[in-house]
Amino acid sequence: MREASYTVLVVDDSRANRAFLTSILEEDGYRVLEAADGEACLTTAAIEMPALIMLDVVMPGIDGFETLHRLKADPAMKRIAVIMLTSLGDQESKLKAFDFGAVDYIVKSANEAEVRARVRVHVHLANTQQELIAARAESLQQIATAQQSLLVKPADVPDARFSIYYRSLHEAGGDFYDVVPVSDGVYFYLMADVAGHDVGTSYVTPAVKVLLRQCATPTYSVEESMSYLNSMLEKTILADNYLTAFALRVNRRAGKAVYLAAGHPPAVYIPGTGPVSLAECENPFIGMLEDSSYHSSSMDVQPGDRFILYTDGLVEAMLGEDHLRTPGNDAQNDLTGRLVEAVTRLRGLPLGELPGALVHAMGADNPDDDVAVMVVEV
After folding, report:
1. % pLDDT > 90, the chain
2. Overall pTM surpassing 0.85 (yes/no)
3. Quick one: how far is CA 320 from the chain centroid?
4. Tell me, which fold does domain 151-377 have in CATH?
5. Is the pLDDT of residue 303 over 60?
6. pLDDT at position 1, please?
7. Residues 6+ apart with CB under 8 A from 80
8. Taking phi first (over 0 means left), then psi (-120 to 50 degrees means alpha), and beta for anything else, what does residue 135 get?
9. Domain 2-141 has CATH 3.40.50.2300
10. Residue ranges per structural domain of the chain
């Protein structure tokens, strides 16, 4: 890694020009690679990933501008710093180089001191940028690890009888869930999605977990629990944001399920016998208005019945195609219909296999959004 940090690739069809620049750079301690044309530059850069490329403009085959364009179009190489080399001193060529993504422009008549100074500056800047990127990646990974550690696992509360599929698009995901024991045989399940995907969304998870444990008790109804979350979060970390959520409380002793959706997709209900349906109960977003009120729905349930709670990443993989062929809200209705069809086909799977199988059936294996799917069995 350190060798690549001080590697410079010199690209010029003139052997004499390459030798001149190589002698200057090697004297300063850089590792210097050479290429005689644009194609060789692209091949060498992809393998060696130098800190800096010094690229001639006028070359046989693809010229320097086309080579630069291809470098910047490649995600793996677009961050490599490029200094353009030319005997041309016209303003148009300079502006074109910068427009294509070059960091600097050296006329070939420049003296050794100028070459050394410009290379030194841009290698230093390139390495500093890489260090910042690495530091940020490490920081985000620590945040992601911390967030993942807050997500309850089925083995942690086996009596809650749930399975989970969770995948975040970025290091810090906006989707999260929780499972809270309320009393003997009674559990509170929450599936939520914070608007946005920035690092700030990760701080919502611990806040919701703390608040949910304060209000997911026998003394709070499901509506009161959501109202409590809404009022507390709206005043604090969701002052400029909001979240959607689906709340489900299952009382296995009484055979009763209570649920509500706060701006969130409805759950899928799978009875032990009978058709699959949607558990719908629309309510306002959480954190948008302090005085929002919430209402719930309830149903009788039997052992073996299941609920599927999910975030919109499960169905959004198909959204673009459906919008093109189905106007208005019909696209969303079609998506929920396809979801019910997929669940109907998969309903006989073991509890632990169902979330992953459903994600695959909905084409959400590689989503453009976070994806979370929880299956709860009564």
Report:
1. 54
2. no
3. 18
4. Phosphatase 2c; domain 1 (3.60.40)
5. yes
6. 42
7. 45, 49, 50, 51, 52, 53, 71, 126
8. alpha
9. yes
10. 2-141, 151-377
